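Fresh eyes needed here. Kindly weigh in on this sequence plus C-alpha cells:
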Amino acid sequence: MKVKIGIITVSDRASKGIYEDISGPAIIDTLNDYLSTPWEADYQVIPDEQYLIESTIKQMADKDKCCLIVTTGGTGPAVRDVTPEATEAVCDKMMPGFGELMRQVSLQYVPTAILSRQTAGIRGKSLIVNLPGKPKSIRECLDAVFPAIPYCIDLIDLPFLETKTEVIKVFRPKSK
C-alpha cells in the first residue's frame, strides 16, 4: 500500500490559473528523489484564505490519512500570508524546531530569510510542515529538515518511510 503525502500550494494567483504552480511540483520532485517507500501525492492548489487552508489540512489529515502534509507559500509577512496561522489553528502540537532550522539554512543564501515564518506541527497522526514558496528554497529547506521527518513520523505511529540513502540520510536512533 502506498503512503499518502499531502501537498498544498497556497497561492491566490496559481489557484486562479494566472500562473502555473511550480512549487507543488518541486515538492513532488524532491520527495520522489528522497523516498524509496512507494507513495502518492494528494496535491491541491488553493488561495490564501485561512479557513480554506485549515479545512484542506484537516481533510488531508483526518479523512485522507496523509502521514505528512507539506505546504508551500503564504509564510511571509504580507497581509494575505496566513499559512502559519492556519497550521497553528489545526495542530495539536507545534514543532518549532523545523521553522528555526529552515530559517537558519535559508539565511546562508538570503538575508530576507528572517522574514519567513515557516513552522510545523502535528495534527492527530499527521506531521504538517510549512515551506517557502520558491522551488530553490523548497529544496534547501527540505534538505535541512527531512532527515528528521521519518523519525518524527515513526514517533506518531505512522508508516515507516525509507529513503534513497545516496540522496538523503535520515536519522533514527539505533535500537538497543
